[in-house]
Amino acid sequence: MGSREIKSPEDMLETPASLEVDGRSRKKLGMFFIESDNRRTAFGRGYTGGTTPVDIHGKPIADLSKTGGWIAALFIFGNEMAERMAYFGLSVNMVAFMFYVMHRPFSSSSNAVNNFLGISQVSSVLGGFLADAYLGRYWTIAIFTTIYLAGLIGITLCASMKIFVPNQDQCDQLSLLLGSCEPAKPWQMLYLYVVLYLTAFGAAGIRPCVSSFGADQFDERSKDYKTLLDRFFNFFYLCVTIGAIVAFTLVVYIQIERGWGAAFGSLAIAMGVSNMLFFAGTPLYRHRLPGGSPLTRVAQVLVAAFKKRHVPSTRSELVGLYELPGRHSAIKGSGKIPHTDDFTCLDKAALQLKEDGGNPSTWRLCTVTQVEEVKILIKLIPIPACTIMLNVILTEFITLSIQQAYTLNTHIGKLKLPVTCMPVFPGLSIFLILCLYYSVFVPVSRRITGHPHGASQLQRVGIGLFISILSVAWGGVFERFRRGYAIKHGYEFSFLTPMPDLSAYWLLIQYCLIGIAEVFSIVGLLEFLYEEAPDAMKSIGSAYAAIAGGLGCFAASIINSIVKSVTRNPENKQQSWLSQNINNAKFDYFYWLLTVLSIINFCIFLYSAHRYKYRTEQTFEAWETKQNILAEDS
Questions:
Q1: Number of H helices, E strands in the chain
Q2: Taking 70 as the threshold, does the pLDDT of residue 628 lie above it?
Q3: Which of 33, 310, 545, 560 has its CA 20 to 30 A from that of 355?
């Protein structure tokens, strides 16, 4: 397709669009969009793209009843469940594996895993780009899930073969604490990092595509489309949660009973089985044609707008804003998008001048739809950006709360729960909330808000962010009590010895709160991004959520490094807030710092959400414009 992605028709005279607000040609421009692709569900039930589903060969599906729907979604759910199981299984076990087996310091192990989690999510933009531009979502998932499996097999070999790990002889707990165990050789760490980041690369192609590909299985022209989409994203995240619960329980149990090789091997087996199920569902899937490189289209708009930045809207040789006549968009896999008044500087890219000629370069003249794609991508950024802080808290809880749990009593009666199982409780709270969502939350909130689904997407994101503040604030309160209790009862220097009279289940409060926050924020965000993203950029839109998660992991590492550097004073023998000895550290101060940052972030979100205008509202305004035109003509 090359650089001339959006083809301009030779007959430019058919393009009527003046920038004059009161001109008839400007009104005719609005007519082009409102007729595009018969958007039956635009008013009141969510924006739709009007694109036609195709089979794996790119041909229109004659009978939609034989494809898609919940049956096809189930095969996709299985793939996501296994990917999440592997992701959380690595996140909770890899820190301990690096510490106990590879003999790396706990802090560097945590940072390495945080970087792994961050890269696996930030690089999701690559998978989203390939899916939207060239491969389509199905083939992107198929290729990258195979890469993911190869990485898991490599990690299993690392944990199973002695050649890949340092000597474990004469390395007891005291030696680990003193750092006197034989360290891993550079090539051993290199191998571990290569296979670890290979799985991160595999996740980069799966994560932005799975939710969008699953949502593609539902008919957007169905009268129940909005309800089906809402339920799909809830069930999708339920599968994510089940995968996490299995990782935090069964995989941890396997590690304790059978060793590291069996634990990581179980993740590889689960991914292999899910891959087979995913491929088995191939005849049932509905596909969307890739619309060509979205980054090229974005670049074309920016370049064209820059070239015409000095062109005034009153110029005599100005023809108007350029758009293809008729119902169809110039972008494959996309419906037309009505013109909006946001970021008017970008409208210069669609300014059609007489000097442009009959077949101008797409790097000089873009369609209004292409310009609006870029506007939408820009307008979406603040919302997922505000969830970065939530992901910081989630990342910190995975590592810091495990350190807290090592000092606490994890017995339930006579049953001792492994410390690495503690993160299962947020998953259980998510599972419970999702099960009760439609029977409890929706009816109650519907009476309060009047919204048919209980709360809008942005309202759900806001509820989640608010609850996350409560979660991290409680974490600070409990940590202050826990540290005081440890010092009072003589555990100041025994930070790996559990205190029998202080239960670890006080951590359940912060775990449950962050689980509830995750349900509202992440599920609402995924649905918001899928509906609001341009038709030919759905995977890029979904990648925004993964990028926010990745940036949260990186931000957590950066915040940790800054706090350690600022609060540590070697001259006065003052340890940092995040020192390895948690009973001498100041984790409570750190939690309150996160609380303050979360409150600031929440205020920014409220401002951004208040200013955001859903695409349904803009489409409705275009519909009103059309009605006014028809009324004037009559």
A1: 22, 6
A2: no
A3: 33
Least confident of 31-45, 239-253, 582-596: 31-45
Taken in order 352, 355, 361, 363, the sign of the CA dihedral is negative
E-assigned strand segments in 342-431: 351-353, 408-409, 411-412, 415-416
- Helical axes 538-567 vs 524-532, angle rounded to 10°: 130
- The answer to whether 421 and 249 are in contact (CB under 8 A) is yes
- Cα–Cα nearest to 45, from 281, 319, 245, 228: 228
- Same topology, domains 60-169+176-291 and 380-625? Answer is yes
Q: What's this model's pTM, rounded to 2 decimal places?
A: 0.76
DSSP conformational letter for 185: P
Domain segments of the chain as ranges = 60-169+176-291, 294-372, 380-625
Answer yes or no: are the C-beta atoms of 583 and 493 closer than 8 Å: yes
Give the other-Cβ count within 10 Å of 491's Cβ. Answer: 18
| CATH number belonging to domain 60-169+176-291 | 1.20.1250.20
pLDDT at position 429 over 90 = no
- CA-based Rg of the chain, rounded to a whole angstrom? 27
pLDDT at 267: 92
CATH, domain 380-625, list 3.20.20.70, 3.40.50.720, 1.20.1330.10, 1.20.1250.20: 1.20.1250.20
Start-to-end C-alpha separation, the chain: 44
Give residue 160's identity as a one-letter amino acid code. Answer: S
For residue 499, which phi and psi values (nearest 5 degrees)? Answer: -90, 115
Q: How many residues does the chain have?
A: 634
pLDDT at position 25 is 43
CA distances from 302 to 29, 133, 306, 330, 349 (A): 22, 18, 6, 18, 7
Task: Judge whether 350 and 367 are in contact, CB under 8 Å.
Answer: yes
Question: Who contacts 592 (Cβ-Cβ below 8 Å, separation ≥6)?
Answer: 473, 476
Q: Report which DSSP code applies to 418.
A: P
